[in-house]
């Protein structure tokens, strides 16, 4: 198995794990305030990451790596979890999930800016086509009546996608040198003091009144969404290319909708199958075009 194929395989595993993030967050916000949920999930994941670093003792990042680690942590440890938790107070999980289809385009854009990648022009056509499939599916799948709350939720999801795309690109760039699991562990540990303090200072809820599904949602987003998924994802971005492997995120909305239908009993229309076929075709074409695309050294 060559390096590119291994990158795509690990990226696919990461996407499968991330697909459960929004349904799990939807479960968690039923029992936890979004601010507290963001702090708790990062604190739990950060504590585990610290234990991993202490046990395995990888090389300490170079001085020039720390700004990128801090900015990446701001995107994927703080901004994305907080913005999605806030959004899910206003819109359904199904509606929020379809916005994740815009992540490949955001990741590719930041991959160009931060990762030094230069995909072929045709790559962008398929990236835009895949995103257009998701946008069309979003309009068909979740035709919510216009309201201030829905608009607020949509805008929060767009901001979350931008923050996550940047964090993915930054982490993928650093993973080429540091390794995937090292990058997410260092990001989580960097954020740990602030998140742990936030958890302690936040108003305490009625712990006994939090339902079991909310606890399970917290456990999933803390262990899988914040740590394990990133181990595979950042490694995949490093091996296969940020812009190329990032297109696998086009599959995430549809995997997430299956989970939303199963866990949250939200309806999923047959249009999902047709849209998925179009997205898979775009991913395959984007992969072929990006695989041989030259890269320049990042500035």
From TrEMBL:
The GO cellular component terms are: membrane
Q: Which UniProt keywords apply?
A: Membrane, Transmembrane, Transmembrane helix
Locate the EamA domain: which residues?
7-130, 152-283
Chief location category = membrane
Stated membrane topology is: Multi-pass membrane protein
Is Electron transport found in the keyword set? no
Pfam families membership: EamA (PF00892)
Q: Where in the cell is it found?
A: Membrane
Q: Where are the transmembrane segments?
A: 7-29, 35-56, 68-88, 94-113, 122-140, 152-169, 181-202, 214-234, 241-265, 271-290
- InterPro entries xrefs: AA-Vitamin_Transporters (IPR050638), EamA_dom (IPR000620), EmrE-like (IPR037185)
The family annotation for this protein states:
Belongs to the EamA transporter family.
Name recorded for this polypeptide: EamA domain-containing protein
């Amino acid at each position: 198995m060559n390096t590119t194929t291994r990158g795509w395989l690990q990226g696919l595993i990461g996407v499968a794990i991330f697909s459960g993030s929004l349904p799990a967050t939807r479960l968690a916000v039923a029992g936890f305030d979004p601010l507290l949920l963001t702090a708790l999930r990062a604190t739990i994941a950060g504590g585990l990451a610290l234990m991993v670093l202490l046990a395995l003792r990888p090389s300490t990042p170079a001085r020039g790596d720390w700004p990128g680690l801090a900015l990446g942590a701001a995107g994927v440890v703080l901004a994305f979890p907080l913005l999605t938790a806030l959004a899910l107070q206003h819109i359904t999980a199904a509606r929020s999930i379809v916005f994740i289809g815009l992540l490949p385009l955001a990741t590719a854009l930041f991959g160009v800016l931060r990762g030094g990648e230069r995909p072929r022009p045709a790559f962008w056509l398929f990236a835009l086509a895949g995103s257009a499939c998701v946008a069309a599916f979003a309009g068909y799948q979740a035709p919510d009546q216009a309201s201030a709350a829905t608009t607020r939720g949509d805008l929060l999801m767009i901001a979350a996608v931008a923050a996550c795309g940047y964090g993915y690109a930054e982490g993928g760039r650093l993973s080429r040198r540091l390794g995937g699991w090292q990058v997410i562990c260092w990001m989580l540990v960097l954020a740990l003091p602030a998140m742990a303090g936030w958890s302690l200072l936040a108003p305490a809820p009625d712990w006994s009144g939090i339902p079991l599904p909310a606890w399970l949602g917290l456990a999933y987003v803390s262990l899988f969404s914040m740590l394990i998924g990133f181990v595979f994802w950042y490694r995949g971005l490093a091996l296969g290319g940020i812009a190329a492997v990032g297109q696998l995120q086009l599959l995430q909305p549809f995997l997430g909708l299956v989970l939303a239908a199963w866990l949250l009993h939200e309806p999923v229309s047959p249009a999902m199958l047709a849209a998925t076929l179009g997205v898979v075709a775009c991913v395959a074409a984007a992969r072929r075009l990006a695989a041989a695309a030259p890269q320049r050294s990042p500035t």
